[in-house]
What we know:
The complex is a heterodimer of chains A (322) and B (273).
Chain A: H1 2-10, H2 17-55, H3 57-63, H4 66-69, E1 73-74, E2 79-80, H5 83-114, H6 117-132, H7 135-162, H8 177-202, H9 205-213, H10 218-228, H11 230-246, H12 249-254, H13 272-279, H14 286-321
Antiparallel strand pairs in A: 1-2
Helix pairs in contact in A: 2-14, 3-14, 5-8, 5-11, 6-8, 8-11, 9-10, 11-14, 13-14
Chain B: H1 3-38, H2 43-47, H3 60-91, H4 95-108, H5 112-127, H6 132-157, H7 160-168, H8 173-201, H9 228-236, H10 241-270
Helix pairs in contact in B: 1-10, 3-6, 3-8, 3-9, 4-6, 5-6, 6-8, 7-8, 8-10, 9-10
Amino acid sequence: MSNNRDENNLIGGDVSGAKRTNNILGDRIFRIVLTLCAALILVIVVAMIAVMTQSSWLSIKEFGFGFLTGQTWDPIKGEFGALPFIYGTLVSAILALLIATPISVGVAVFLVEQAPKKLARPMAFLVELLAAIPSVVYGLWAIFVLAPLLRVYVQPFLQETLGFLPFFKGTANGIGMMSGGIILAIMITPIITAVVRDVLEAVPVTQREAALALGATRWETTKIVLANANSGIAGAIVLGLGRAIGETMAITMIIGNRPEISASLFDPGYTIASVIANEFTEATGDLYLSALIEMGLILFLVTFIVNGLAKLLILSVARRTA
Amino acid sequence: MDKRRLTNTIMTTLTAVCAFGVITILVFVLGYVAFQGISSLSWQFLVQTPKPVGEGGGIGNAIVGSLILLGLASLVGIPLGITIGTYLAEMGDGWFGTIVRFVADTMIGIPSIVFGVFVYAVVVLQQGYFSTLAGALSLALIMIPIVTRTTEEMVRLVPKSMREGALALGAPQWRVTKDIVIPAAMSGIATGAMLAVARVLGETAPLLFTAFGSRFYNIYLDEPMASLTVQIYNYAISPFEEWHAKAWAATLVLVTLILFINIIVRFLTRQKY
């Protein structure tokens, strides 16, 4: 600010005093307006927490922390426990990460370390397009393509070869936890890939040159680069986790929507986001609605923390390499 | 071939398989949508309203509804996002800017359905009915942080020398930002805004209990409003084969619109960066 004033003074010879004060006043108003708009984002987030807490107070008061560990979801008896939904959300998200992480890192390594620039750019664009496809479209595709594919080919095969494991027991009907995890994996792959690409590109070229000069193979060089970018990759994975937890439409259409805890990945499950999407408009009674809004609040807080963590991890790479 | 080289060949091949595999999935999904959708696509389908099973019907009102929701959301979300992004780029280096940037970033990752829940509690519950305005508000909330972040990036790309030149000529800060910096970054900001539009065009979850959906053409802002995505969802989860075909056709329309925006943005930005 003082700098500005000096500049105004420097050319102040032919600028009238009134105009100078005008400019300073203008700057001040400008700054205030912009700052207020920026503050609006904070207001929105605080309002979201406040409103959702208030709207779910009935349920919070009634169930307390027991809400998180309760296993019964019975709107008719007015009994609401979130555990089956928390379980479904976590299992489907972890399954998605197990599939998506190695693939995403592979894609990013190929695009940054191996592919020629001419090929890498259009390919990167195509991978990003995968993220542009709406959730409801993935859901539709999952119902009519993925689920039948799993039911007819993949699940019977898994049952025959690995059927002794608790994960692959029960009837193979396509709709369930496994389909949910796979569709989530497809949806978060472009997101993890994009972040890992950025992180790999931030690792200095000199590191690669040094490794190659010492006689390392391409893959050995890549391993060194990956080791250097590990916290950024962790950030990318956490970001993917956040997305998988909050994904709604596709998983609602494919996971089966039954609030049960079952070790088998063939069985249907239910997620926090899905129960909100499915039951919100049907919620009769204040307690029911309040319990669903509490689900929304939980989803908000969890994804807010997860995303904040991801951001910190990714930032730490940027800072170290800068 | 020694062991190191063998590992090298295997791993580099595997990464290539990952990359081409992911793109194959994209082609498979898009190809399937095109293949399934094209057969039910007709002029009637694009202009008619939904009808009971067996009587045809279409998605005309849903297309109009999506455009109205999108227009309203953009009216709020884009200017606000640009303003906040400009703040972050031009004067956001202090502690306050850091917090706002962090919160905006984190907000991008908040599930869209949560915005729906929030708007339901604030608007729908108070008014007692689903409305276009509520739907548009939930979409606007999703747009704000996205536009904010792309705007900040674009404004930061404007060279310092341009600002210094204008300041040296005696222009006050606010005119430098408004008349020099923003116009210079405008095409980048516009593409960012377009991407945000494409993103909310595909949103379903926040509309389920805000705009809700409707079977009629509607222009009233205090009434429920149809949208392409919710219509697709309703068609998709129905037990009728005829409606499934309609879901695919509507999906083809939606995906075409979204890809169209994405590809245009790609071409606009290609020459520059």
